[in-house]
Amino acid sequence: MSRVLTLARKDLLETRRDRLALLFTLIMPLAFTAFFGIMFGGGSDRLPLAVWSGDAGPAAQQLLAAVQQSDVVTVQRMSQADAEQAVADNKVAAALEIPAGFSDAVAAGQTATVTVVGTPGSSAAQTVQTAVTAMAGRVVAGEQAAQAAVDAAGTGPTQGDATPEQVRDAALLMARPLAAQALALPAAVIKVTEAGRAAGQVPSGFVLSSPGMLINFILFSLMSAGIALIEERKNFTLQRLVTTRVRRWELIAGKFLGMFALTFVQQIILIAVGQFAFGVDYLADPAALLLMMVALSCVASAMGMLIAAVLTSEQALVATVVLTSMAVAALSGAWFPLEIAGEGFQFVGHLLPTSWILDGMRGIVMRGFSVADVLPAFGFALAWALGLFGLAVWRFRLSQR
Amino acid sequence: MSIVEVRDLKKQYDPPKGVVAVDGVSFAIAEGEIFSLLGPNGAGKSTTISMLSCLLRPSGGDATIAGHSVTSDAQAVKALIGVVPQDIALYPDMSARENLVFWGRMYGLSGAELHRRVDEVLELITLTDRQKDRVEKYSGGMKRRVNIGVALLHKPKVLYLDEPTVGIDPQSRRSILDGILALRDQGMTILYTTHYMAEAQELSDRVGIVDRGRMIATGTHEELVKTIGEEAHVELRVDHGLEAMVERWRGVAGVTDASLNEEHAVLLVHDADQVLPRLFEAAAAAGSRITEINVTEPNLEMVFLHLTGRALRE
Amino acid sequence: MRRVFAIAFKDLRSTYRNIPALAMMLAAPLALSALLGFAFGGSSGYSVAATKVAVVNLDTAPAQGSQTPAAGAAIVDILQSPDLKDLLTVSEKASAQAARTSVDDGEDVVAVIIPEDLSSAIFGIDAAAPQTAAVELYQNPTQGIGDAIVQSVVGQSLLAFNGARAAAVAAQGVATANGDADGAGTAAQKAAAAFVHRSEGSSRTLAVASRAPDLRGGRAAKQVGITGLVLAGMMIFFMFFGASNVARTILTEERDGTLPRLFTTPATRSSILGGKFTSTFLTVLVQAVIIIVCGRLFFGIDWGALDAVALLILVAAAVAASLGLFVISLVRTPAQAGAIGAGVYLVLALLGGNFTGTAQSGTTYATVQRFTPNGWLLVGWNEILRGGGIGDIVRALLIPLAFAVVFFAVAVWRFRKRFA
């Protein structure tokens, strides 16, 4: 066992001495975190929305007012052509076009159309569409309610020689604010609560993505550990080690321990930055977190060992690590929630230990998971790690040929 | 007619306090001769060759190859020299032929002439049969042959070989040495560095002995050996009374020097055949018995020892 | 010049003989794009799995037997309607606790808990003491998409009820104002019914159409499959690696002795470095062409206008080559080059949006993307995939090219110093 520790210590010492690589090992997590901070930090930006209206009627006015007051979008009024171009140039998330005749159609109970112009496939445009649909729906409902009220209650006695339309309009003038007021204080509302958290706290994008980013990075950092092993093989120091009384499994265990320590330190850095700089509540349950960290380092180190055990050239290693880490990260749900992917993809994803670890970490951060909740993930990951480690021992190549 | 002239060549890394690898080396090589630079590891041989190859900029002094200066006319020099570096410098994932074609192009050869020349060199290094195999699959000796072949493609006027026989089997070494002698017979001038005295002795027309960045002696083998006289080196051990024996032997006719070196008496003698019996007589007369005797005829190793006080291979 | 090409050709041959390098350069981007394509069901865009919803209806029917069904039951019917079958998988639970537990346990993504006072709140139109009932959506915060769908559906249902109630309230007010206080109640009921009738008509009262913007010259923007965008991003990322493989040979050749040997031949330093630059550029150019062709053949990606594609590929190759040489010029050993290069490319790819797509203009992320050459290249790819031409990508060509020139210049300067 002491040989194992000696080996591990040597590896860590070498890592520490290669200053450029060390810098990178420490800088990289920070760069990653900064990137995600940029992407998701600063709360949610309001989506810029170009608005053109060719209708001056009451329904159009109401819709415009609702859009202006929305906290999902910021409105920029412009001409129809400019709005079109703004979307094409990606300067706004989408454009809202309210055509002439909108208010009349609403009043008459006919289909009133507005158009949302957006880049196909853009999620921002999708968000705008949803928001506009809700707002326009309320506007239309208000108008329909007023119209229905006048239909039902009648227009009252005709006065003087006012035309029927004028009489109706007068009644509508009375009905509209009543309807609007009733809608402003609706009888039925939606209350959103989240599992495991105090109601009303919506996690930021960063909180959602931080654990995934952590896993992605740890997988990626297998690179430097793997390269070190390959260099050793090239220098023949590895082979020389075997001519001493070090046994093969001790050699590999020593390397494994070194990689474990390295990835664990990197996790600590990432978690610390996430916790203290971005408010990701990893420390909600430290014991559960520790289990997940150990699980991740075990899996990552075993993976790294296997890759470095089998491959003999740096180039092959870099290629494999990049490809594997990206594929595994994607399949585990680190890049996008698995639920939006197809069934087959989800199935494969849930076979991987990293997706379980990711769920565990997200659970700790957002749903108050405790040790009992993450234990299955821990067990599953450990099983995988043991399997990969076993494979690594079996296939470990001592020479380059 | 000297084709290579080296005048006071110097190289200091990281002046002013850095290591002085070459400290004012001067020598000349006549056309068609083999000149060896002999010296221990770290003497400055490779640095000198690097400067003569236009790989390193000299800190001082200059050298000319066929009149072209290495400092100011490097391009012309490179066209005239062929360099065989100490380590194998080939592309392992390419075949011998592909390597030769590539390097031939670097030397300015092209077209049919290039391919013809490549065939000739392959023949010369006897690798025609394996020319299509990747170099990484070759044995050490084969790699060395290709390594040399590359330098011959453009028929250089001067060939530099930097310790070409280090770490290879005796058979390959023999064929390389024979090849070098054959090239000299065809008129090539060769600069050869080595720390093996036997090679320097066998191959060279003239030898330059370097130590710690300085040229300490140049000349033919005979000239150099003469500097330490034609004395043979005799080492003896006796069963007792060594110190007293050293004094006695000093007085024997034909012994020019006698000293004590740990448990050996070290004598320099003229005409060992005549002197040896006298040594035995002197020992017998003193009641001592010679238990060990070693006679070495004068050679370059002794020259080096004489000049520097250290052995060539330390 | 001949020597430059001799060196370039040698390196090119070496790279394309090297299986791991090929795997990285060609297999990796294609495989990852295929994987993501598989994730999202092919090139036709997102396909979302149905969201699992638990619903519990605690609503009690309104006191008087009226024709309108209990609000709660109506909501449950809507959630379970065949139209929403592809989006929602609904299961009814016996209690609020059961519904919440199923979300906690991960069986369902969101629980819809309809309170017992929903109907009385909606149908009670006593203006003096208006009631509010809240339909609770208890959701799993780690899954973002499904909640939005449920919220939208429930929200629209509630809007219908609130609208009917608003009609009733307004009718009451109008009737009273008309002097018909006795008939106010009847008017209210009629108004509510009329509202429901209006909004349930065979033609809907609101349509929110969506379309793509018209581009310059009246072309309509194409619907772009996700695979094209993903492959463009991956291609650029892996071109960085392809370039660094070749550029790294400068260091390995220095270590193995063939570079110093090159310096002893009549080949000038310029031609030697020029040869390396050329081979790096050609390697990634060939890589890009192969990926583009494979994208067309295997994924059916329509890349767009050929001249624009060609220019974009050339600029991308220049950026990749110069960046690779730049990185190599800063490190000392091949091992460092491998690890550090990979790190640099990953960070650049993240910042430039290679994995996440071009960001919305105006956001911080969009600004950051503009600081990377690959970010600009992606803007260009976005444009031509959507049907743009050369005129639309002028900035996306020139700005990365400027980056390439700077990287190249720094690399040359550093190599000159190193191999003086």
Secondary structure: number of strands of chain C: 5
Strand content of chain C: 5-15%
Task: Report the largest inter-chain contact.
Answer: A-C, 131 and 141 residues
Helix content of chain C: 55-70%
So what's the oligomer here? Answer: heterotrimer
Query: What structural class do the secondary elements of chain A suggest?
Result: alpha/beta
Strand order of the largest sheet of chain A: 2-1-3-4
Please provide the ordered H/E string of secondary-structure elements of chain C.
HHEHEHEHEHHEHHHHHHHHH
| Structure summary, number of beta strands of chain A | 5
Count of separate structural domains of chain C? 2
Mind summarizing the main beta sheet of chain C? 4 strands, mixed
Uncertain stretches of 5 or more adjacent residues of chain A: 198-202
Helix content of chain A: 55-70%
Strand order of the largest sheet of chain C: 2-1-3-4
Key phrases:
heterotrimer, A: 401 residues, alpha/beta, abc type-2 transporter like fold, 2 domains, 4-stranded mixed β-sheet, 16 helices, 5 strands, 7% strand, elongated, B: 314 residues, Rossmann fold, Alpha-Beta Plaits, 6-stranded mixed β-sheet, 4-stranded antiparallel β-sheet
Characterise the protein shown here.
The complex is a heterotrimer of chains A (401), B (314) and C (420). By secondary structure, chain A is an alpha/beta fold. Chain A has two domains: 2-40 and 204-395, no CATH class; 47-184, 3-Layer(aba) Sandwich (abc type-2 transporter like fold), CATH 3.40.1710. Chain A has helices at residues 2-17, 19-40, 58-69, 80-88, 102-108, 123-153, 164-184, 205-220, 222-235, 237-243, 248-278, 286-310, 314-332, 343-349, 353-367, 371-395; strands at 47-53, 73-77, 94-98, 112-117, 188-194. A four-stranded mixed sheet of chain A has the order 2-1-3-4, sandwiched between helices. In chain A, α3 (58-69) links the parallel β1 (47-53) and β2 (73-77). In chain A, α8 packs antiparallel against α11 (248-278) and α8 (205-220) runs antiparallel to α15 (353-367). The model of chain A is unreliable at 198-202 (pLDDT under 50). Chain B has 314 residues and is α/β, with parallel strands linked by helices. The radius of gyration of chain B is 24 Å and the shape is elongated. Chain C has two domains: 2-43 and 225-418, no CATH class; 51-199, D-Maltodextrin-Binding Protein, domain 2, CATH 3.40.190. Chain C is 63% helix and 7% strand. Chain C contains 16 helices and five strands. In chain C, α2 (19-39) runs parallel beside α11, α6 runs antiparallel to α7 and α15 (373-385) runs antiparallel to α16 (394-418). The model of chain C has no long low-confidence stretch (mean pLDDT 82). Chains in contact: A-C, B-C. At the A-C interface, α2, α4, β4, α6 and α7 of A face α2, α4, α5, β4 and α6 of C.
